[in-house]
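About this split. The held-out portion is used to measure sequence recovery: a designer receives only the structure tokens and must propose an amino acid at every position. Recovery is the fraction of positions where the proposal matches the reference. Here is one held-out target exactly as it appears in the evaluation file.
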């Protein structure tokens, strides 16, 4: 009897994955649409949960389909919400030197220190405040996200000093967003010093990549 139920979750996911691939209007690259992916994953989970909750074969089948629909709505809703936010951020950050990257349902803004701060300073540059004004305009429209701000340095100099500098820089970005209307309750600022490099510190190019502030936007979900 379960043979007629088992294919439902993969089928729901397969149907929803159609149309998930889109072209990034900013880079021209083909990428998987996060809304469709989230909906497909939600559908598969919902179908499986629904199938397990029924008593007879018909009940299981019906519950699986209902569960798939509910799961798709939840997963797709979060994905669509973050899709819209990502699109606005990409548009706003064009030409600023600040990168926008999508990681699942999270959005990561990479702010190189050469753009954001002066040498050995935690004072925001005019270019940084202009970009953060645009970021805050988007963040105040999309209030169901948490904002984690992480400061990073290269390994040049004293590790303790680098740690404190990274903390001051993360605080500077967070405080500016708060002053620009973003709720302080959504903000979390932390410095990591030289402990999380993304490139080698043996070259100037690598050190430049490591000197950065990363802002990660994470959807707030309610259980």
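Reference sequence for scoring:
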């Amino acid at each position: 009897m379960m043979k007629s139920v088992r294919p439902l979750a993969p089928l729901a996911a397969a149907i929803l994955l159609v149309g998930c691939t889109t072209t990034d209007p900013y880079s021209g690259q083909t990428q998987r649409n996060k809304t469709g992916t989230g909906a497909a994953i939600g559908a598969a989970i919902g179908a499986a949960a629904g199938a397990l909750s029924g008593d007879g074969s018909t009940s299981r089948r019906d519950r699986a389909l209902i569960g798939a629909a509910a799961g798709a709505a939840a997963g797709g809703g979060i994905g669509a919400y973050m899709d819209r936010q990502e699109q606005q951020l990409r548009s706003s950050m064009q030409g600023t030197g600040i990168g926008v990257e999508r990681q699942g349902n999270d959005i990561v803004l990479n702010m190189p220190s050469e753009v954001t701060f002066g040498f050995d300073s935690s004072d925001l540059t005019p270019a940084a405040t202009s970009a953060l004004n645009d970021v805050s305009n988007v963040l105040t429209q999309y209030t169901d996200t948490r904002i984690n701000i992480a400061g990073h340095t290269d390994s040049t100099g004293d590790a303790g000093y680098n740690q404190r500098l990274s903390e001051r820089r993360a605080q500077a970005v967070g405080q500016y967003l708060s002053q620009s209307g973003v709720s302080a309750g959504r903000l979390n600022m932390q410095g990591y010093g030289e402990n999380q490099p993304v490139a080698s510190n043996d070259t100037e190019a690598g050190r430049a990549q490591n000197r950065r502030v990363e802002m990660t936007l994470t959807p707030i979900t309610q259980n």
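Annotator remark: Confidence is low (pLDDT under 50) at residues 1-6, 11-19, 22-31, 67-73.
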